[in-house]
Structures are given as structure tokens and as C-alpha cells.
Amino acid sequence: MDHFLTLADVIATHARLTPQKIGVLDSTRSLTFLQWEKRACCLANGLLALGLKKGDRVALLAYNCIEWMELYVGLAKAGLVAVPINFRLSPDEIAYIARDSGASAVIVQAALCDRVDAVRPALSIRPDRYVHIGSSAPQGYQDYEALISAASHAAVPVAVDGADLFALMYTSGTTGRPKGAIRNHAGNAQIAVATALEMQFSRNDRGLLVMPMCHANSLYFCVTFAYLGATIVIDDRSSFDPEALVAVLAHERITFTSLVPTHYVMMLALGDAVKGKYDVSAVDKLMISSAPARKELKLAIMDYFSNCKLHELYGSTELGWVTLLRPEEQIDKLGSVGREWAFSGAIKLLGLDGQEVPEGEVGELYSRTPYVFDGYWNNPEKTAQAFAGKWCSVGDMARRDSDGYIYLVDRKSNMIISGGENIYPTEVEYALACHPKIKDVAVIGMPDDKWGEVVKAIVIVHPGQQVAEVELLEWCKERLAGYKRPRSVTFVTEAAMPRTATGKIQHRLLRERLVADAGGS
């Protein structure tokens, strides 16, 4: 696969063709493609001078910042493997990923050094291979800028081809310990081409990355824009600020961004006076993903961003993009995640017997994408479970309608079994989410001596609203079969709802907390 241009190759190409064009920026600085290329070469040569060699893994821990793009390109030039770590993880979780990946170096933002320091004795990493990003220099760390300044910007003497590892992307761990999904350089190239063609991106686009840059969503979109030679804008605020985001969309003339429904809800809630201060007419395309979006929300998005084409996707770290609901389908196929991307291959829905289920019935979703991952790092058992020949699954359950549109039902691991009946939480969540006073909801199974599990709803209400448990239980009576209805409702604040970095509710963690509070097992 040596005919694939790596991410490092394309930045070098843009540095020759459009050296003065801004390739990437955040709120503190910007880099032309030529500057980006030179700093990435310096970073690569600096890391190799520490004794790192092709194939070594480098753990990365940072909030969103411009350095992520230097790191992804610099590591690619050196043939080193990026191991992005979610900044929301605990020290023990960080240590687990560093050890599991066999990381030989750590590059960490200064504000997060305390988390690394807490577990440093448990890591088998040379003292001189701890590098920090930031203005202050914690004791025991090399300075990132000093490392770059001391190194040469000459071409890096390492041969890297498409089959070589680019990154180990650790999954969010919603169903247990995170697993390292192996992504190669050829997969990067293929997903970039597929995304650009399907969504009609060009070098004139300006893409805003809001989702964490340690996550596959931002990685896939940043790679797409990098391959095109478009401009990448990084939202580097430490917390989500809806007005600040609208301001960036306006001031930077952003043409595309990818957000979760919560982001859109918060922006649209700003009010007409605030939203009216900003010209968002440059926004041409928007992506919504990671959680279901209601009809009212989609209509409100399209009303405010009047020039945009709204897309909804389904994909994963392992599979890449799988399905796409295109702009003209948003309302007619509400609740669907669309059909296959034009360049993503095919989809099968398989039952427990391994055979395809009939139209309208629920089965486990398998796809065959050209950019599928290479397996889980050091985990042949989980890798074998994910593949059925050339078909791959991450455990999502779905059904297909007569027009070929896919509707996600739930994760197989989230399924509730009550009295022998299979209950998919997403179906119950959708029924509750239609209540006008509910902002968000999660449904889990709680242990029960009689039924095995019973359905429980955890609800966040809209600010200023109040609703009683009995009202919601009555609401469900009109919309769900008896065995699917929640037996109880717990009301929580937004802060109390455990989520992944992309806004997905962590059902497993939520269940563990509530079972512990109830004194169960």
C-alpha cells in the first residue's frame, strides 16, 4: 500500500503549492502550510533524536489546540504511532491506556501534567521522553517548543507507507475497558477521499473542529480538510460556550462544523437578540451525530443556518463512516441515520443465528468499509468478535425499512432483558424524549428479583420546567408496550449525567452508580 499519500505527504505537498495559505489556526496562533510543514519536520526529528524509532507509540494528552495538528503530522513523518487519550479520563484510566499501548513517550499539555504525574511511577517510559505543551515548564518534563527549536526542519529520513500504523484510537469505554482501534495511513487517505466526494468539500472550505481532537470524529474531518488543503479552525476553549461558538462561525467565515444535538440546542437557546448579532451565512454544511435529533431541532437548525445543508451520520472509531442521512432526507426519514455512504461499502443486519434478518426486524449491524480498522491492539479475542469474515460490527443493533434506510435501535450491550423480553433503551428514550418538558433522557435496566431487570428512566428536564414521575409514567402508557415502560424515574441535573467526550450517555456507568446507590449488585 505504498502508493497512498500519508497525512505527512499531503502537508508537504501543500507547503510547496500554497506555502502562504493558512492551514490551521486556533485562538492563539495560526500556521501557514509552510510553517506547519517545517514545525512538523522539527518535531519528528526531535522525537527521533530521543531514540524513538518507527512503530513506537506516543501518548498524547491535551485539550483542543493547534499542537494536535503538528503532532498528527509530525508523528506521521517519523513513522511514530499516535495514541490520543481523552482528557476527561482519570489518572488510572490514562495509565491503563499508556501501558496497554506500550507508549514509549508522553506529550501532555501543562494543565494536564498532574494527571500524568499521579501515575508516572507505574509507566515504563524514560524520564527524558515526557514532553509538555504550554508556557510553564513543570519539573521533569521537556519543553515542547524547545524540542522543536533544537531540531532540524530537514526532511525526515523515515519511509512510511499506507499499511503502517498511524494511530491507536482508544474507544470511549462505554461497555468496559477501552480498546485500542488500529488505524493505518491508507485508511486516513480513503476516508478523506470518501468524505470530500460525498459531502462535496473543497480546498476553499473552512472547517471548525469542536469535538475533542482525541476523538475519531475530529480526526476524520481534520484529515479530510488537510488532504484537500483547506483551512482547519480549532475551537480551543476549555468548556463549551454557545455564543462564543456562534461568534467563531461568523468571524472566521466557517463553512462546516460537526456537532452533537446538545451543542445545537444550546446555540439555538441563545435567543434572537444574541443570534442576530452574528452573520452565519457562510455556513454551507452542518453535521449532527452521536445522538438522535428531534424534528423540531432539525427544523430550527435549518431555519437559523438558512444557507446550510444538514447531514446526519453514523460511524465509529473502528468502522469509519458507515451511513449518511443527506440534506433532502432529514425530515422525510426522521429517526434514520440514512443509507450507506456512496464510498463505504455495504451493510448487513444479522440475527443471533448469523443470518440476515427480514426487512423491519432488528439485527446486529455489520458493514464492509474500505477504511475499516486493522483490529484491536493486543486483543485478538475482541478483534475476532468484531469480524465475520470481511464484515465488521461494533455491536450496534438496527433495522432497515423498505427504502433501505437504517434505524439504530441500541448497543447490543445496552439491551435490557426483562421477563425474557428484549428491550432496547433507545426506543423507550425516544418515547420519553417526545415529552415537551424533557431535555434529555437515559434508560437502563435495574436488577430485579422477579423480572431479572426492570426499566428505569433517568431524566433531565428543561430549565424552568417541572414534571412529576407519575406524569411521565402515564405518558409512556400511551406510547409503549407494558413490558417496555419504565417502572421508575430518577431526575438528575445535566452535570450528573455521565457522558463520553462526544456527548454520548454512558449507560454502563450510569447503571453502576444507581445500582451502588440502591445497595444492589
From TrEMBL:
PROSITE patterns: AMP_BINDING. Residues 13-377 form the AMP-dependent synthetase/ligase domain. GO terms for molecular function: medium-chain fatty acid-CoA ligase activity. InterPro entries: AMP-bd_C (IPR025110), AMP-bd_C_sf (IPR045851), AMP-binding_CS (IPR020845), AMP-dep_synth/lig_dom (IPR000873), ANL_N_sf (IPR042099). It comes from the Bacteria. Signal peptide: none annotated. The keyword Disulfide bond does not apply. GO terms for biological process: fatty acid metabolic process. SUPFAM superfamilies: Acetyl-CoA synthetase-like. Residues 427-504 form the AMP-binding enzyme C-terminal domain. Keywords: Ligase. Belongs to the ATP-dependent AMP-binding enzyme family. This is Long-chain fatty acid--CoA ligase. It comes from Massilia psychrophila.
